[in-house]
Every structure is written in C-alpha cells, then in structure tokens.
C-alpha cells in the first residue's frame, strides 16, 4: 500500500470537502454567497501534519469528534470565531483529540494548521519544541508573543505548502521528506515559549457537544418536521439554553439556522434533480409549506428563483 504524504483538493460542495479531510466529520454551511467553494491541502510526515484550508465564502463549520491521537492547532485570525470567541492575529486555537469545535467565518479566509502525534510530543523537550504544546490540558488558545512572530510562522507555513503543492514530486524521495520534516520541526520550535495559554471557558465543551447534536439532528431529519420541543429533547437542553448556544455559535436562532440549512439543501437538490422533479416537491419535502415565501427566501439567498435553478440543471 502506498503511503499518501500529500494531497490537495478543490471542492465545490461540502460533501467533496468532507471526503478530502481525514479523520473527522464536518458540517459545512455557507453563510453568504450563491455557491460553495473551498480548497484544502494536507501533508503528513512522521507524526507532523500541516494543513491549509481556504474558504471562499463566509461559512458555518461544526467539527465532529476530532481524529484521535493528534493535538491540532489552528490559525484563524480575526476573520473567524471559534466556539463563540473571536479570533486574534496572534492566536493558535487548540482542538484536542476526540473533541470538536464550531467555527463561523467571514470571507475569504485561509485557515492554517499543524498537528502533532503523541510520539512527537513525547520528544518535545529533546526537540526543543514550545512547552505550550506539551502542557495544554484542555482546548483553548495559545496567545503568541506578538503578531510579528505569528506572521513569520504563517508566512513560512504558506511557503512550505506552496512549494510542496507546486512540486509534489518532492514527496517521492525519502531524503527530501526527511529534510522537510526537520524544517517543520524548526518552524514549530521558533514559536518559542513566550506568550501564554488561555483555556476555553468551562462551558465550551458542553456547548460544542450540544451544537454537534443539533447539527446531526438537522442533517438526519431534513425531511421531517422538527418542533422546538423536539430539538430541546434531542439535544438534551432547555429552550433558553439552546437558543443562546445556537445564537452564540451561528448568529442565528435555532429556527432561522435550520431554515438556512434547508434552503442550501434545496439548492443542492434542485441543482442535481431527479427526472420529473418539481420545485413544489422539493419545498414540501424540506418543510417549506408556503411556496411563495420559499421562492422569495430562495431568490434573496441565491439571486434567482428556484424554478430557474431547476430549469438550468435539467437542461
């Protein structure tokens, strides 16, 4: 079996992007625009992973339980909120093994990340890696020692991904992979021990799990009626708490967020129709009982009426 050290993907749907990203389940919903476009690069060398995710539209992202065995640090910048908290230019956001997170981004955004296997962390002292990588007990944020340091790190991260992306044959030789692995270690080591780690609020993990259940319900019950009482029962929380958590993480009420999700699903279905499909059939299936309001909301979101989307897709 051939080891896959590097891959890159251009995705025009949430499903395509999910297939490209190893080790976790994501829910992606565009927050603006008329289409979904993303790019993803992933490199894995001897326990160190480097990734780069570009989103062309503002998006909601709910990350399911993360791949086990890897601590993953994300540079989000000021164009995103993670677990309801605004990012900073000098932040690295930690998602620990087995945990998830929520992200609400502006557009466009480039999310740069690195991950370390416990085998690498076990050698952190000998490799002179930053102590924050070893001591973070919970998910949170590593506030680096100033924007100059974070800017230099991110520039080096981009340069490495650009070089490997432009010359993937680099990964075919053991000697170049070893040299690149040493470069990654050096890049991470230069972050130093300055700065401090700020753990997430004590409620963040519970709120993330509620959002994960909320997204799962929305995904699995797309053609079923859902009352607010149903949502509270299935997520295990009160009406007031659910409303506050969804608003904090998405900027919308639970009902408004579900409607937005279903509008995007309607667009996906109408863009890939079965023979004989009608707009009315799709609207009713997704719980839009007032066809005029559905058509108006669809046109406001996507710049055309649903009948136009269907006609173009049907040829």
UniProtKB/TrEMBL annotation:
Origin superkingdom: Bacteria
Pfam families: HTH_18
GO molecular function: DNA-binding transcription factor activity; sequence-specific DNA binding
Start and end residues of each HTH araC/xylS-type domain: 212-312
Keyword Flavoprotein belongs to the record: no
Coiled-coil boundaries: none
Protein name: AraC family transcriptional regulator
Record keywords, A-Z: Transcription, Transcription regulation
InterPro entries in the record: Homeodomain-like_sf, HTH_AraC, PchR_regulatory_protein
